[in-house]
């Protein structure tokens, strides 16, 4: 089984392959598609990540191998009863501005993925889910200016991260209430 890639490796591979989406946005779109549809085919998601999925392009092929690991790991995490789900974002050694930008891209990918997974704009949703999606749209628009990062900014980022993380689990549970862990690709 292919393992989950780290953020930097996937970022580099997607940039080299000239993917349409960055690493955090790719993961967000996968999560959104899974929450909306329950199950998606790997190829459907890869078609969202790459404008043209060319199996003969070695750079696309290398990036796709990393994405297979992310696909498998994400399905397992979303269906984990221990809530062991994590957003694919830069680690805490990166600047707060970089992490905030990646979180905004993640939320942008997530809301895009919900639509790509079949969630309709006028679809009646549970109130909590509708509010969380609205908040993620707002987070996708947010940014953080580089400069004097302080503990309050770091604390706010961690609260937003946790809000998004737990929000995804709640949305997934409300839209896909009966989960059976999917088979992973080898």
Quickly give the CATH architecture: Up-down Bundle
**Total beta-strand segments:** 0
What does the average pLDDT come to? Answer: 89
CATH class: Mainly Alpha
Number of helices: 7
Q: By CATH's scheme, which homologous superfamily applies?
A: YgfB uncharacterised protein family PF03695
Sketch the major β-sheet.
none
Q: What is Rg?
A: 16 Å
Order of helices and strands: HHHHHHH
Which percent band covers the strand fraction? under 5%
Helix proportion:
55-70%
Query: Given the C-alpha coordinates, what overall shape results?
Result: globular
- Helix-strand makeup class: mainly alpha
Q: Can you give a write-up of this model?
A:
The protein is 62% helix and 0% strand. It has one domain: YgfB uncharacterised protein family PF03695 (Four Helix Bundle (Hemerythrin (Met), subunit A), Up-down Bundle). The model has no long low-confidence stretch (mean pLDDT 89). It has seven helices and no strands. By secondary structure, it is mainly α. It starts with 6 loop residues before the first helix and ends in an 11-residue tail after the last helix. Helix 2 crosses helix 4, helix 2 runs parallel beside helix 7 and helix 5 packs across helix 6.
